[in-house]
Amino acid sequence: MASRFTYSRWDGTQRGFEIDADSLLDELADELTYHGDINTAMRKMMQNGMRDVNGNQMPGLRELMKRLREQREQIQERGDLGGVYSEIADELNDIVDEERQVAGNNFTLDMLPDDLAGKIRELQHYDFESPSAQERFDSLMDKLREQLMQQQLDQMSSAVQNMSPEQMARTKDMMAALNEMLERRKNGEDPQFEQFMEKFGDFFPENPQTLDELLEHMAQRMAMAQALLNSMTPEQRAQLQQLSEQLLEDMDLRWQMEQLSQNLQGMFPQAGWNKQYDFSGQEPMGFQQAMQSMQDLSDLDQLENLLKNASNPSSLAEADMDKVRDLLGDDAAKSLDQLSKLSKMMQDAGLIDQREGRMQLTPRAIRKLGANALRELFGKLRKDMVGQHKIDATGIGHERANDTKPYEFGDPFRLDLHGTLRNALRRNGSGLPIGLSPEDFEIERTEHSTRSSTVLLLDLSLSMPMRDNFLPAKKVAMALHHLISSQFPRDYLGVVGFGEIARELQPESIPEVSWDFAYGTNMHHAFTLARKMLSRQTGTKQIIMITDGEPTAHITPSGEIFFNYPPVHETVEATLREVLRCTKEQIRINTFMLDADNGLRRFVEQLTKINKGKAFFTTPDNLGDYVLVDFLDHKRTMAGRR
Prior knowledge:
The chain has helices at 21-35, 38-48, 61-77, 83-103, 107-110, 116-124, 131-153, 165-186, 193-200, 211-231, 234-248, 253-267, 287-308, 321-328, 330-340, 342-348, 363-380, 417-428, 463-466, 470-487, 523-534, 569-584, 598-611, 623-640; strands at residues 50-51, 57-58, 352-355, 358-361, 385-386, 389-390, 399-406, 442-447, 452-459, 492-498, 502-505, 540-547, 553-555, 561-563, 587-594, 615-618. It folds into four domains: 21-78 and 302-361, no CATH class; 83-278, no CATH class; 400-447, no CATH class; 449-640, Rossmann fold (3-Layer(aba) Sandwich). The protein has a six-stranded mixed sheet with strand order 11-10-9-12-15-16, with helices on both faces. The termini are far apart. The chain is an alpha/beta fold. It contains 24 helices and 16 strands. It is elongated. Helix 1 (21-35) packs across helix 2, helix 6 (116-124) runs parallel beside helix 11 (234-248) and helix 20 packs parallel to helix 24 (623-640).
């Protein structure tokens, strides 16, 4: 047969996929930000694969499952199980022809039955005149006994191949001892597993450590042998069973095998005893080829079951990578091996923790996600102008804080030379010349002397993900939090998520926030919470609201939630009354509208008229530009008023 694979054999020298924890978190960022759950994001990555640090696409489970199905179809389409018998029949006919050359016309040979089992039965009692034909027939019978044994035991032992009569007898003793061991356990007695392994351990190269492990291996093998029978036509199946009875009857081994099969079927009903495969190829397969095909199909089934039920990367480590490499090629094995290490890699890097069987982001990972979101949004901005908002690349209005910090993307590049050189020497040691790298850069920390307090209102209503607005809005929230915490540490940022009701969110938990599975846009409650949060703060105060819908819910005087769509007069009035309270407390409200319809536009016009804040009609693509530029412009304006 032609080679089954076009892949080169893995020899340990080929380069695999190269990934690291930071690039992995970058790859996960959008899925993680959207779903708010590292476990869901990791499962999606497992399914879809990822690009490594060199830009190579690492296939995920979906692609591997596709290859697995293609490989299964290829195996089933390349052969015909009928070859198991034609191979034996052809050799028997050659032996009979050789005997005729010596014996001449022979009534016994002329009357041989047409069926394979019957022909073998008659020849077993025939006195050959040709020594060569006799030797070939005896060799064929030994080979068939070996193959029938192998069909049941599936390479359970190297002794199965080329068995002598003594080895056959020992195999029967092993099977009998195994059945006796099962009977003892069934009766609540000590099965004496250790004694069994001392005597017959050479039959089991996997070296099972417990009786259950041994029985599971045997159940898989015997189920595979049964699948071969199930996959044959009724005529083929009858021939094989008759042949088995004919050749193994005098060994008394068939009964032991049947007993073991019945016991194992009762103990492992889910092992696939009723499984069958549709072989549709034209090329006749010999017995060895048929058994190898069944082994490959069984391995593919086990691998498919593992991939289907893998809920986290570490569960993929159970796969036998050598088998994966043989079945699907080096590329698949390398990908699966890397996928199995994803969670451990992130855990070792301090990006996730395992709590109660689930992965959770660490503060370090949350800070990195915020920094990535800020870097992404700043990367889109032009330094001179976006829309009608100017930002000054030199950071006018800041003062030195007599402190330094590591340089981050977007920082004004006021290099602190002493700190930078100190970092380089600490990293490389003394010696000239001093080598600098970006992580050595230390800059002067600058702060506004004027403190500002901001509450971000983030719409979590169901319309946000339905209209693809949730991911960009959440990225803006993460970026704003990182900007304030890293560049304006004296400022205050509060976050309120609102849907059917509003709730205060911890800014550092934003990456794990998800939308509400309920209808309602309760701006009334959101403004109320924001106003109370800002009442405890100092400096200039503002609310930044990101939304894609008009107010459809409010809290009644009795404390109940009222919802109606389209909005009713009571909801709009309650919301605007809270806007008026914010205005009286000198809280500026800036609104960023996504996919604004006429209803939202009319409401925001009323809000802006009362509060004198700004309104921005934006899209998911430019939302971050507007929010960050407006925030920085606000800081610049405050600095100019000092």
